[in-house]
Amino acid sequence: MKHMQIKDSLKKISIFDCLNEDEFDLLTSISKLQIYAKNNNIFYEKDKLKYIYFLTKGAVKLYKVDRFDNEIFLNKLEENSFIYTVSNLCAKDETLGVFYSVETVKECEVLLIDVKKFKALFLTKPDILRRILEESYKSILQLQFIVNRDIVYDGMAKVAYMICNDLKSFNSMKKHEIAYSLHLQPETLSRILRKLARNGFIKVENGKTMIKDLEGLKEIYE
Predict the structure, then answer these.
(1) Cα separations (Å) of 208 from 6, 36, 175, 180, 200?
(2) Does residue 99 surpass a pLDDT of 80?
(3) Which of 6, 18, 38, 131 maximizes the CB count within 10 A of its CB?
(4) How is the chain split into domains, by residue range?
(5) Torsion angle (degrees, nearest 10) of CA 11, 13, 17, 18
(6) What pairs with residue 203 in β-bridges?
(7) What is the tens place of the pLDDT at every residue in 108-117?
(8) 18: left (phi over 0), alpha (psi -120 to 50) or beta
């Protein structure tokens, strides 16, 4: 049963959709599933990872800690996501370096794939390498958003971007969680939402935000 559970989880990962059944069996043999409780760290910044981590269930936050021990939020990942950039697989090291820490925000199920064995068995396949590049491009887009959010966007643009591009998460999170993720004070977030509603960009009903003027919202941050 465990073997089939792992195999089924692997088949949901898009970079492996070029593999045949025998290759999936081989990949399953070097993989395992692990459960992490809520508010537990999966790994820390500067750790050397021996596994590829793929989030199959739950959600995690990525963060760094500055020299004053202040936590700096980077990103939140939901299920069916790699927990670090897979471009690291192209490095020569047998372990993977990471530049952020990862903590669960709810109980998580994580698929772990042995890095050393994966490289030896699968990195010679052109289709796998192409898919790793495609996944790396997604990571670059996430990094672009983080740079815009933390350096370029003002508070209004941060909120407008999240509403336009991740409304599901916006409506599933509490207001203080949204404020934390956008590096805003909760009071500032409330003022921005009131202004967006007053100007006809959004509508809030029963605690849920709905978009009334998508193009107008986009103009705020584009």
Answers:
(1) 36, 30, 11, 18, 15
(2) yes
(3) 6
(4) 2-146, 153-221
(5) -120
(6) 210
(7) 999 999 999 9
(8) alpha
Characterize 1-34 residue by residue with b for buried, 16 or more Cβ atoms within 10 angstroms of its Cβ, and e for exposed: eeeeebbebbeebebbeebeeebbebbbebbeee
User: What is the distance in angstroms between the CA of the first residue and the CA of the last residue of the chain?
Assistant: 49
Distance CA 36, CA 106 (A): 9
Q: Is the pLDDT of residue 1 over 60?
A: no
Query: Do 98 and 47 touch, CB atoms closer than 8 A?
Result: yes
Calpha distance 201→209 (Å, rounded): 10
Homologous superfamily, domain 2-146: Jelly Rolls (2.60.120.10)
How many Cα atoms sit within 13 Å of 87 on the Cβ side? 9
Lookup: tokens for 125: 């396949």
Mean pLDDT of the chain: 90
47-77 per-position pLDDT tens digit: 988 999 999 999 999 999 988 888 889 988 9
pLDDT at 56: 95
Q: Domain 153-221 classified CATH 1.10.10.10?
A: yes
With contact defined as beta carbons under 8 Å apart, do 172 and 165 qualify?
A: no
Fold match flag (2-146 vs 153-221) = no
